[in-house]
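Exercise 7.
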Amino acid sequence: MDINFTCNQVESLLNYYIDGKLAPSLAQYVTEHIKKCPKCRKKIEQLKNVMLKYNNENNSQNTKETDGELIGSLSAYIDNELDTTENVKIKIKAISNPSARQKLESMYKFQKLIHSAYEKTKNETKFDYSKSIMAALNQTPDYTTTYFRNIIILFVLLLIAIISGFMYLYF
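Solution. The predicted structure, written as tokens, is:
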């Protein structure tokens, strides 16, 4: 099957592609598009550079182990995945620890940026390309019904021909 993705379709899949969360066949189609399209190739390089820079900054910070645990749980705090006790602990530590508070604020900004980019893309396209792509890849024709119907029709025609032949011979 030869599928040609548009740039908008590839852009909607880039985060999953970089994280390696796409099905191999879908990742192959994205790879093929990126090889052909300089605009998308540039976008993926920029996104990889930003992620690399972000990871390097996180790795270069020397924090205490308790601060590291706190920073690890900030994402869960922002996404409201913690229970009330853990939320209170995070708030207290963020108030008393300037580096944790700064990290929390930057994570909120990052979350807001991602959310606004998602909403902008969603509002601009009004079409979920990833669902349509997955539906196209998963769509397989049902040959059993078609073949069965054709066999039945052939059988009925053959039966009619045999009966007609007997009627012609005997009448």
